Here is the input.
Amino acid sequence: MIRIILLLVCCMAPLLGEIKVVAFDFGGVVARVSREAVMDFFQSSLGLDEAEFEEALAHYKRRRAEGAVPHEFWIEYAEGREIALAPNWIELYEATLVNAIQPLPGMVELIHTLKAGGYQTPLLSNISCDYAKVAMQTGLYDFFHPLLLSCDIGYEKPDPRAYELLLESIGASPGECIFIDDNLMNVEAARRLGIDAIYFRGVEALREALHERGLLANKELIR
Here is the structure.
């Protein structure tokens, strides 16, 4: 039995050593994006009651699926109903977005560790142009290259084309890439393409998963 285990470990080692890329999702993995805070801003700044906002939100979601930019939709919505927005509404909206995007504790340090180990760290994220603009201002995108944002590439996970574009952009095969996402549908879609995808359930659990794959040493698990 011991010989069999040793043989399996030896056979697995080269495969683990082939990993060159650790790709990340953004919202819910790298940072918390409080969409509730943003929705609260829209509702309060437009002066809508619960029923009115729910109706407007349903319309927004349909338009969002068609590629509508969030702040443009709500400005158009206000104009169509003769709702007077504050003169500095755009500035207030952007400030709300900045406050809504905060890095998860320990994640920046983990990304630094992976980069120091020679792993490439691209970003594959479903994100609107508004959120992407603000996230860029926070400096959190600086840890990733390349950036594959759905608002730029035209595909959203779990569309297979998003993952194929990721692999093409980094010049890697599925077996050379690990992908991390907090959406199980996105994880399963990556796995169907042969990518080793990790379902994100917290920074410490991610450290353990990367350690099991040989990407982190024992000392790097201690924080």
